[in-house]
Design brief:
single chain; mainly alpha; 11 helices
């Protein structure tokens, strides 16, 4: 029986996330239970969750990815990914869970295509982005992708393996900070368009993502180019 507490460190959270892909059912199920286990209950019976900060978990996961030799990566649908696809999807879900907990959302449940409380998530997203930009401007942190772009980059690896879970994760994050990252995603709209053309549920999610990105375009010429791209 696992007795680990993910709220205490990113390393323990990472161990549990990886263990959700274990071959043994009891380890896999208990790892997931520990990841999403409430820390305590309030007087009204509502559950109180504790997790490491979203940005810290993203950084930790990507450090582990960078330290993993490419020879250890997994081949899924001829696409190399650092962890089994089910584990990567669980990592994305747990990171969303961390973001929701950090935002102070008390009722954690399975989400639809978008957050159940977008304004609250949006406020936290912009707070994290402002802190990142301030640290870069002041020289405390090296210039580089913000935590959300790192998250999107990680999710894109799983998307290449046709993971609808990963595409949903990108949609929810982009919808929460679209004005801040749409310029980065704009060059990738052809990649998103290919997913739209796949049709089915995967294509539906990709269409929502395409719409969120396109909705931020203020230049008429850019918008017309995008419209032509979508129609071809």
């Amino acid at each position: 029986m696992l007795r680990l507490y993910p709220s205490r460190s990113c390393s323990i959270s990472f161990i549990l996330m990886v263990a959700t892909g274990d071959n043994q059912d009891d380890i896999r199920l208990e790892s997931r239970r520990q990841l999403y286990k409430a820390a305590k209950e309030a007087k009204d019976g509502s559950k109180i969750f504790q997790t490491p900060p979203f940005s810290a978990v993203v950084e930790y996961v990507l450090k582990r990815v960078d330290s993993l030799p490419r020879s250890k990566w997994h081949d899924v649908a001829n696409q190399p990914i650092p962890f089994p696809l089910a584990v990567m999807e669980q990592m994305l879900k747990y990171l969303e869970h961390c973001l929701a907990v950090e935002a102070g959302i008390l009722s954690i449940s399975e989400e639809g295509l978008l957050w159940s409380n977008p304004p609250v998530i949006g406020q936290l997203v912009h707070k994290i982005l402002d802190e990142h930009n301030y640290k870069v401007a002041s020289g405390v942190k090296e210039k580089g992708p913000n935590p959300f772009m790192k998250y999107v980059g990680f999710a894109e690896l799983a998307c290449q393996c046709l993971s609808a879970v990963a595409l949903e994760s990108i949609l929810r994050i982009v919808a929460g900070c679209s004005r801040n990252i749409y310029q980065t995603l704009l060059p990738q709209v052809d990649w998103i368009r290919k997913f739209v053309l796949r049709g089915g549920y995967y294509g539906e999610v990709a269409a929502h993502l395409f719409g969120v990105v396109a909705g931020q375009i203020q230049n008429q010429d850019e918008f017309e180019k995008l419209s032509i791209l979508l129609s071809t």
